[in-house]
Amino acid sequence: xxxxxxxxxxxxxxxxxxxxxxxxxxxxxxxxxxxxxxxxxxxxxxxxxxxxxxxxxxxxxxxxxxxxxxxxxxxxxxxxxxxxxxxxxxxxxxxx
Length: 96
Description:
By secondary structure, the protein is mainly alpha-helical. It contains three helices and two strands, in the order H-H-H-E-E. The longest helix is centred in the first third of the chain and has 22 residues, at 20-41.
C-alpha cells in the first residue's frame, strides 16, 4: 500500500490540499490503481507486438494547404446591405 507521505507528496506536486480523511481515501484509491498496473504488467504481449503490415497506413492524413478564392462579392453585398457602415467596416453599438 502507498504510504501517507507519498500521497502527501503527490498532492503537493498537484497543488492539492487534502484533509487527513482525504489522504486516507487517496491512499486506498492510489494503491488500487497501482495494483491494477501490476496486473497489466503481467499480461503476455508477445503476440500483440507484431503488427500486420496491411493495418499500418503510411499516408499523410493532413489536408493539403490550398489557397481558396474569396467570394468578395458576398462580403461586399453584406456590407452594402448594412444601414450603418464606414468604408469597408460595419458599425455596431458598443458592447462594453
